[in-house]
Specification:
heterodimer, A: mainly beta, 0% helix, globular, B: mainly beta, 6-stranded mixed β-sheet, 3-stranded antiparallel β-sheet
C-alpha cells in the first residue's frame, strides 16, 4: 500500500520559516515525483511545485520561486518542503502527493496545517 | 498562472446528472490533453476521479466522466448520490512542467 505520511501541525510567527516532511512508503521512491499543493482555509487547491527524487531537481510555481525550497532524503524516502518569510497568507494545509509520469496525483498525504500568527 | 475557472457551486437531486466546467486557455486546458479531476470531502485530502481528460483510474465508478472542448474541460456526475456532495477541482498541465488547479466547485445533493 502506497502511503505518504506528513509531519504534524506547526504554528509560526510572521517572518519565520517552516519545513514540512512527507515520508513515503509502499513503492519505489525513485519512480515518482513528489508534488506539493497547498490549500488556505476555505479556499481552493494551489499547486506549488515538484521534486525529482532521483536528481533532486525541482520546478516551482512562479509564486513560490523565491521562498520555497524542496529537498529529499533518498535514504529515508522522505521529501521536504521549506517555506521562508512566512506571512499570514501562508496559513494553509500543505499536502504532498505522488505523481508518476503522465499520470495523476495519487495518493496524497494527510496534510500538514501551518498557521502563521503573531 | 491564474487558477482555472470553475462555477462556485452546482446542485442536483439524487439520480440526476450534474456537469462542472473548467475553463482555461490555450496555454493549459486547450493546449494539452492532461486534465484531471479531484474530489475532496470536508477535512480530507483530494482523491482522483479522472485523468488525461477522459480516463478513470481503477476503482472510480463510471458515473464519473470527463470531456473537453477547446479551452473548457467538463466533469459529469451521473446518477447523483449523497456521497457525491463534496468539492471538485480540475487540474491541468500548463507547460514547462508546471500545473494549475481550478478554483473549485461545491456540489450539493438536494
Amino acid at each position: 500500500q502506497v502511503l505518504l505520511l506528513q509531519s504534524g501541525a506547526e504554528v509560526k510567527k510572521p517572518g519565520a520559516s517552516v519545513k514540512v516532511s512527507c515520508k513515503t512508503s509502499g513503492y519505489t521512491f525513485s519512480d515518482s515525483y513528489i508534488h506539493w499543493v497547498r490549500q488556505a482555509p476555505g479556499q481552493g487547491l494551489e499547486w506549488m511545485g515538484w521534486i525529482n527524487p532521483i536528481t533532486g531537481d525541482t520546478n516551482l510555481a512562479q509564486t513560490f520561486e523565491d521562498r520555497v525550497t524542496m529537498t529529499r532524503d533518498t535514504s529515508i524516502t522522505t521529501a521536504y518542503m521549506e517555506l521562508n518569510r512566512l506571512t499570514s497568507d501562508d496559513t494553509a494545509m500543505y499536502y504532498c502527493a505522488r505523481k508518476k509520469f503522465l499520470e495523476y496525483f495519487d495518493p496524497w498525504g494527510q496534510g500538514a496545517l501551518v498557521t502563521v500568527s503573531s | 498562472q491564474s487558477a482555472l475557472t470553475q462555477p462556485r457551486s452546482v446542485s442536483g437531486s439524487p439520480g440526476q446528472s450534474v456537469t462542472i466546467s473548467c475553463t482555461g486557455s490555450r496555454s493549459d486546458v486547450g493546449g494539452y490533453n492532461y486534465v484531471s479531476w479531484y474530489q475532496q470531502h470536508p477535512g480530507k485530502a483530494p482523491k482522483v476521479l479522472i485523468y488525461d481528460v477522459t480516463n478513470r483510474p481503477s476503482g472510480v465508478p463510471d458515473r464519473f466522466s470527463g470531456s473537453k472542448s477547446g479551452n473548457t474541460a467538463s466533469l459529469t456526475i451521473s446518477g447523483l448520490q449523497g456521497d457525491d456532495e463534496a468539492d471538485y477541482y480540475c487540474c491541468s498541465y500548463a507547460g514547462s512542467y508546471k500545473f494549475v488547479f481550478g478554483s473549485g466547485t461545491k456540489v450539493t445533493v438536494l
